[in-house]
């Protein structure tokens, strides 16, 4: 198989603090270009629920096999929720490129560092809020988080913003001040050459 980028579309890694507007812009992108992008299928150790399909909703696995893949460096991100493990494997991202779609990874800073260690040849986009104060207003405006969660997100946001200053980490940084302006830049990054 040739490397990603030769004839398979390069994945796009989108990161940025919680509340920066990733979901807002991604929803718009997927609505406008439904066939162009794809998402990787995650691994999980939880049992499939009725109607869920192996390889479609998740790759269902057991703890032992999951941990073996962790040891082999097969995961970009993995985490435990409750008693179950979840993760995004490098292979799952390659599977999306193999069917000719641009895999979108909406991940946080640690995941970005992991992707950089792989041969995924990804492009990196950072979505930046205009300021931490405005980020706080938006998180509050969303009315979906407790005060504690907001404080945690803001603390993590400061870390992410600091990391994003590292030269060469991101191919592009978009400041989400005016949504329409951010959308134009976002679309140009994800679907180059579409601007009127
Ligand atoms: N340019 C903008 N101006 C004003 N409000 C915005 C702008 N962009 C996004 N918002 C609002 O900010 C809030 C946070 O946006 P969104 O939920 O898309 O963030 P996110 O980065 O996906 O966060 P998370 O990582 O927690 O999912 C939403 O209520 C959204 O409507």
Question: Would you mind describing this structure in some detail?
Answer:
Keywords: Kinase, Transferase. Helices cover 40% and strands 19% of the residues. The N and C termini lie far apart (36 Å). Helix 5 runs antiparallel to helix 6. 28% of the residues are buried. With 196 residues, it is α/β, with parallel strands linked by helices. The model has no long low-confidence stretch (mean pLDDT 95). It binds adenosine-5'-triphosphate. Residues 16, 18-24, 138, 141-142, 176, 179, 182 line the site of adenosine-5'-triphosphate (ATP).
Write the SSE topology.
Layout: E1 12-15, H1 22-32, E2 37-38, E3 43-44, E4 59-60, H2 63-71, E5 75-81, E6 84-89, H3 90-98, E7 102-106, H4 109-116, E8 123-128, H5 132-142, H6 147-164, E9 172-175, H7 179-190
Parallel strand pairs: 1-7, 1-8, 2-7, 3-4, 8-9
Antiparallel strand pairs: 3-6, 5-6
The chain binds adenosine-5'-triphosphate.
Mean pLDDT over all positions: 95
* Radius of gyration, whole Å: 17 Å
Strand order of the largest sheet: 2-7-1-8-9
Helix content: 25-40%
CA-to-CA gap between the ends?
36 Å
Largest sheet: 5 strands, parallel
Enzyme class: transferase
Keywords: Kinase, Transferase
Protein name: Guanylate kinase
EC number: 2.7.4.8
Give a brief description.
It is an enzyme of class 2 (transferase). This is Guanylate kinase. With 196 residues, the protein is α/β, with parallel strands linked by helices.
Defining traits:
196 residues, alpha/beta, five-stranded parallel beta sheet, 9 strands, globular, binds adenosine-5'-triphosphate
């Amino acid at each position: 198989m040739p490397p990603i980028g030769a004839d398979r579309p390069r994945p796009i890694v989108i990161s940025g603090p919680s509340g920066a507007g990733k979901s807002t812009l991604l929803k718009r992108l997927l609505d406008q270009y439904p066939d162009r992008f794809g998402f990787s299928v995650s691994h999980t150790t939880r049992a499939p629920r009725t109607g869920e399909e192996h390889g479609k909703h998740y790759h269902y696995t057991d703890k032992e096999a999951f941990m073996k893949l962790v040891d082999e460096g097969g995961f970009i991100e993995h985490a435990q929720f409750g008693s179950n493990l979840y993760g995004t494997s490098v292979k799952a991202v390659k599977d999306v490129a193999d069917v000719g779609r641009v895999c979108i990874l909406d991940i946080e800073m640690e995941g970005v560092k992991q992707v950089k260690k792989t041969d995924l040849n990804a492009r990196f986009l950072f979505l930046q809020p205009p300021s931490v104060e405005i980020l706080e207003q938006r998180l509050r405006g969303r009315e979906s988080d407790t005060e504690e969660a907001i404080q945690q997100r803001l603390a993590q946001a400061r870390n992410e913003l600091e990391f994003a200053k590292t030269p060469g980490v991101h191919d592009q940084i978009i400041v989400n001040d005016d949504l329409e302006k951010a959308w134009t830049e976002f679309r140009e990054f994800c679907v180059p050459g579409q601007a009127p």
